[in-house]
Amino acid sequence: MKHNWKITAILIAMFLVTQVIGLMVINAYTPRTETVIINGIEKNITISPELPYGMQPPEIKPEISIISIIIAFVIAILLIFVLTKIKAKWFLRTWFFIVVVLALGITLYALFFYLNIPYAALLSLLIALPLAFYKIFRQHILIHNLTELIIYPGIAAVFVPILNVWTVIILLIAISIYDIWAVWHAGFMQKMAKFQINQLKLFAGFFVPYVGKKQREQIKLMKQKYKNQKIPERVLKKKKIKVALAILGGGDVIFPIIAAGIFLRTFGLLQASLVTLFATIALLVLFIAAKKGKYYPAMPFISAGIFIGMLISWMI
């Protein structure tokens, strides 16, 4: 098992909560039919809520959109690789900040939709700006993970309208193949994650530091020795207490939201929930089967869970 049960449960819970929020957000932006009375006559009209801040995607065929997404993904990866090589920290932080603000704004705007709050776009932006600033430039572990819960639903809401079931299947297969290459062959994902954590002091995904049983015993003994005192820094450095990191990349969170969101718009809540359920089960199986100290591409496992959920949904 890669992490202990407590840490595994935290990661799975955060993953599942994000998926549920994602379905709520996508549902808020899904076109719906409402009955209105005009001049005493009932008429059905279609309401198509648009994403705020000019983020509404253009109406293009899904076949074209999948090609555009893959090309954009390749360009983004190459750009990140180059920026990582030249260590363009300020540019990367600014890039992350802009993306986080927009994603938070889109999600908050959708959540305010359910509450029927006026000036939702402005209010969402006013909340998103300080959260993004604190996340990117002040780095607090709690703020980081809480904002991650609502960042990926906002990003997914941009892509869901331009894809369909078949194009998202192609996208999942392509991303899974890339994930295998990037983790097990090129080692690119590990390098990128280490650069984000060590150099940028941030990470695109869930991030949970923890100490093992042996390290906890060391800390306990030190606290007993220096009771009611601050432990000297030289002692902490000498002990070299190793902190483990449990991480789950943002891509591993966002693609299941996109897949479930498409099923929500195409078939309904039950079918979308099955996709989410089996994606979560697949991730749990990976965490249980994975070994400590080794890196694994999560998307092939998550995609397999999504495909099982899709098949069961089609059978219903």
Report on this structure.
The chain has 316 residues and is mainly α. The protein has one domain. Helix content is 71%, strand content 8%. It has twelve helices and four strands. The chain has helices at residues 5-28, 62-85, 89-115, 120-138, 141-159, 165-185, 188-200, 213-225, 233-239, 250-266, 269-289, 298-315; strands spanning 32-38, 41-47, 205-210, 244-249. Strands 1-2 form a two-stranded antiparallel ribbon. It has a two-stranded antiparallel sheet with strand order 3-4. A hairpin with a 2-residue loop joins strand 1 and strand 2 (41-47). Helix 1 (5-28) packs antiparallel against helix 11, helix 6 runs antiparallel to helix 10 and helix 11 (269-289) runs antiparallel to helix 12 (298-315).
Low-confidence stretches: none
Strand content: 5-15%
- The coarse overall form would be globular
Q: Whole-number average pLDDT?
A: 84
User: Could you say how many structural domains there are in total?
Assistant: 1
Q: How much helix is in the residues?
A: over 70%
Class from helix and strand fractions: mainly alpha
| Major sheet size, sense and barrel closure | 2 strands, antiparallel
How many beta strands in the DSSP annotation? 4
What Rg is obtained from the alpha carbons, in whole angstroms?
22 Å
- What is the chain-wise order of helices and strands? HEEHHHHHHEHHEHHH
- For the record, give the distance between the C-alpha atoms at the N and C termini, rounded to a whole number: 34 Å
**Total helix count?**
12
Which sequence of strands runs across the widest sheet? Answer: 1-2
